[in-house]
Amino acid sequence: MNDILPDQTPVWQFLETTVKSVLGAYGYSEIRMPIVEQTDLFKRSIGEVTDIVEKEMYTFDDRNGESLTLRPEGTASCVRAGEEHGLLFNQAQRLWYQGPMFRYEKPQKGRYRQFHQIGVETFGMASADIDAEVIMLSARLWKQLGILDAVTLQLNSLGSNEARAEYKDALVEYLSARKEQLDEDSQRRLATNPLRILDSKDQGTQALLNDAPELADYLDQDSREHFADLCEMLDQAGIKYEINPRLVRGLDYYCKTVFEWVTDKLGAQGTVCAGGRYDGLVKQLGGRPTPAVGFAMGVERLILLLETLEVVPETVKQPFDLYLAAEQKGLQKRLMVLADQLRDQIPCMRIRVHCSGLKNISSKARQTGAAWVVLVREENDSLLANLWYNSEPSYDVQEQQLIELLQQQWQA
Ligand code: ATP
Ligand code: MG
Description:
Blueprint: H1 9-25, E1 29-30, E2 36-38, H2 39-46, H3 51-56, E3 58-61, E4 67-70, H4 75-84, E5 93-102, E6 114-123, H5 128-145, E7 152-157, H6 161-176, H7 184-192, H8 203-209, H9 221-236, E8 242-243, E9 255-262, E10 271-277, H10 281-284, E11 292-298, H11 299-309, H12 314-317, E12 322-326, H13 332-345, E13 351-353, H14 361-367, E14 372-379, E15 382-389, H15 399-411
Parallel strand pairs: 1-5, 7-8, 12-13, 12-14
Antiparallel strand pairs: 2-4, 3-4, 5-6, 6-11, 7-9, 9-10, 10-11, 14-15
Helix pairs in contact: 1-5, 5-9, 13-15
Magnesium ion is lined by residues 51, 250.
């Protein structure tokens, strides 16, 4: 679980602001859910035999003996909240959320125990256009962030629940006959969650899968058409994708479309965003049948990618624009007021006032990294301002304009 320090928060804010503007452009509404839910919610939605529920949840009993869990993901909470407040039935909803998630994992680069997701969930829309929309939205986001060239879209269809069940049987039959050739994890999954074997990292298992039954051959007609519609829309939107027949996703609740945005720039933890369609989940959690599509992005991995690619604009990292300091004793009180008057005059300018003594003031001011430094002194009742740039300011105020403003305010 990480602290996010002041030199990192600007990058987080850059990401969050960009995400919000893209989500706004598609008309999505924010929802905020609690961090703790009843344990049962995750067991019923994510599935008893998934990695998350089997070994990754932070679960505890409260003082009343009720089992609670720090949320490991947002979809279950979002469905719970939507159902509880009547947002789902017979409506079309486009929602998003952000915040910390908790999983007891082996910490490594891009994998933490408290991490952050920004998630999107849509409800009430059954046809492939909404699948296309959430993918287009994510592609636009990568473009805005400057990382589109570093990610690729992997796409697959899992078919209906019935088609998947039929495929599962065929896969289990094929693999059971060759059980001793499977890696240990996959042997265990054969009994619990056989589809997960498809994304095993073990080479022997992958080789064995080359001759295994293919999910694509078991797809029902409806899912085939749905997938074809989606691909057609992505083609028309100019969004490139790879069809990955072994992409199954870890959670139980997906059907039809699944997708992942992956990068090869971060090593093993290469999935920065993952999602798909989950038409069965609302009913599974006690609501009326409601089609749904969503995805979640891993904020830490996106931040790592932004930093690796060095695409965050320099100005984003500056905490303020102007560093204002008095060179002489006795001016500080007036300087504080002056700074506040400047904030009235130029609200977009971020001003930090020097408040820590006169020693080495000029070199301290330089080290702040501010775009502008202004050192003021008084001679014959008027203000002398010594101004210099460290870097280009991020907005449009001219040097002369700034000095005039300072002098006017000083006189006043
Ligand atoms: P992985 O296969 O990497 O474990 P997952 O399938 O468990 O991922 P999801 O539950 O789909 O992941 O979560 C969506 C996204 O959240 C992931 O693609 C990833 O970017 C991010 N994510 C998941 N777990 C972690 C973690 N422990 N630390 C940081 N980011 C994570
Ligand atoms: Mg995981």
